[in-house]
Amino acid sequence: MKLTRRTVSIATALALSGLAGSAFAQTKWDLPAAYPATNFHTENLMQFVADVDKATAGKLKITVHANASLFKAPEIKRAVQGGQAQMGEILLPNFQNEWQMFGIDGLPFLADSYDASARLYKAQKPVLEKKLGEQGMMLLYAVAWPPQGIYVKKPIASAADLKGVKWRAYSPATARIAELVGAQPVTVQAAELSQAMATGVIESYMSSGATGYDTKTYEHIKYWYDTQAWLPKNAVLVNKAAFDALDKPTQAALLKAGADAEVRGWAASKAKNTEYIELLKKNGMTILPPSPQLTSDMKKVGDTMLKEWLEKAGPEGQAVVDAYKKM
Ligand code: PCA
Question: Which domain holds residue 272?
Fold first, then answer.
């Protein structure tokens, strides 16, 4: 073929932009997530994906599979580890039984505000990154859910009022809370929560205003006690081999978009918390502060759980708690 001036100039342009040879080789990744498309974590993921698309000029296309449509919440971590998905979003405390440190942000009243939660993340992050690294993954970013309160059908004055109640758990820690207050735990992930309420499988649970709104909890449960007990985090993971297979500019674009998503996600969580609570009220839910008795009962539950956690987590856990308390 005789090279015209035009083909030469296109080839030169491609070479200069670093796209030669791979200009049409688009990389496609899947990103399973467990929460609905309208949830603020998922919206943040969509923005992240758009940012990556833009920064790589369409070279890395990531598809978000919301609402546990590709993998169920407890399966996402293993899918990323095994490379069935190149990325995934998990709820860290879901994996506490595998390694206690995954569950530190699921303990009641260890970190019960956005500021405390950000400090706990800082203390936890080095060991979290190390552990995920050993498992062939990278922590791209993590964002806290809004503070957790108690959804319950009837007004409660103390933890004793939760005895015998069918209680939805989403993690080992939320199941342990049920045991400690004498409720009956059933583990149900967010994607199945609406149905579990509709069929009467559960009548109470602890979670954020976000999940109460996402799942239309107000259609079944009328009270939410704003205990602000803990702020569990979602973490976005990347399979390390998939990351290593990307070219350097694409890797840099992914890391930059991830860092931006972390900042944006924490701000959205905070701002949306107020919005979600307003939306619950608008839909007929009564939002109440916990009574001093209920607060002190729940704090006692938290103390017991921290003690149990430290026993299992050992010196590594103690070191993270100590580092956090010094911050
Ligand atoms: N919503 C998720 C986890 C924490 C939260 O606020 C859920 O209830 O499943």
Answer: 26-326
Q: How confident is the model at residue 24 (pLDDT cuts 50, 70, 90)?
A: low
214 touches 36 (CB < 8 A): yes
- Number of domains making up the chain: 1
- How far is the centre of ligand 1, averaged over its atoms, from the C-alpha of 127 (Å)? 23
User: Could you tell me the CATH number of the domain that includes residue 51?
Assistant: 3.40.190.170
- Is the CB of 117 inside a 6 Å radius of any atom of ligand 1? no
Ligand 1 contacts CB of residue 290 (under 6 A) = no
pLDDT tens figures, 44-85: 999 999 999 999 999 999 999 999 999 999 999 999 999 999
18 lies in a domain? no
Structure pTM?
0.93
Does 14 fall in a domain? Answer: no
For residue 296 the two structure tokens come to: 């002190």
Quick check: is 20 in a domain? no
| Residue 300 CB burial class (10 angstroms; 0-12, 13-18, ≥19) | middle
Strands ordered across the beta sheet of 137-144: 87-91, 233-239, 137-144
Q: How far is the CA of 168 from the centre of ligand 1 (A)?
A: 11
Q: Which of 208, 214, 233, 234 to mutate to test the pocket of ligand 1 (most atoms within 8 A of CB)?
A: 208
**pLDDT score of 237 more than 70:** yes
Residue range 104-121: average pLDDT?
Answer: 98
* Nearest-atom index, ligand 1, CA of 170: 9
The answer to whether residue 12 is domain-embedded is no
